[in-house]
Amino acid sequence: MSFYKVLVIGDVGVGKTSMVNRIVYNTFSEKYKATIGCEFGLKIIEINGESIRIQLWDLAGQDRLGGISRLYCRDANGAIVVNDVTREGNLKQACAWKNSVDENVCMADGTPIPMVLCANKSDMLPPESSITDETIQRFALENKFVAGFLTSSKTGLNTNEALLQLVEKIMSKH
Ligand code: GTP
Ligand code: MG
């Protein structure tokens, strides 16, 4: 059975814990409780008849002030970089998070570990918003993410899809 370690990272309050809870328990809460240090979630998915165990490392958003600890990044197979689409300039922050991971961990061959970009809280975007799945995907590919999605931890939009794309990429590299 394959086992992968996936980091869930991004600024304070963007919805990392909510995304893990959506993926693992299919639940959502409006209440905010800041993550201290790191919490864990385990998700098992079937791909081509094989069970894949994914350990999600839900890190506190505050930690980027000092970069992400090398300890957290150690042996990570991939990362979900979460941002809040309702916050101006937050996509750039996603790149800062990606760089922070790249500084701390890489594949055995020296290439970066796969990461997906989740532009979260998309349920709060006004209908006339110019931010779409296409603009997120384009930004993600330009910045060397595997893929980018508009997501919502609240409704569950694209949360499983993002994880699946990440895991498929991880598997293709192992
Ligand atoms: P830290 O642990 O402090 O880094 O925050 P976090 O990124 O884990 O954020 P968390 O999941 O705790 O969510 C912060 C707040 O945003 C909570 O009140 C959630 O209910 C809310 N929230 C999270 N995701 C979504 C979403 O997709 N849509 C909406 N509308 N609210 C969300
Ligand atoms: Mg949290």
UniProtKB/TrEMBL annotation:
Q: What is the lineage of its organism?
A: Eukaryota, Sar, Alveolata, Ciliophora, Postciliodesmatophora
Q: Quote the protein name from its UniProt record.
A: Ras-related protein Rab
The protein's superkingdom reads Eukaryota
Where does this protein come from, organism-wise?
Stentor coeruleus
| UniProt keyword annotations, A-Z | GTP-binding, Nucleotide-binding
A GO molecular function annotation here is: GTP binding
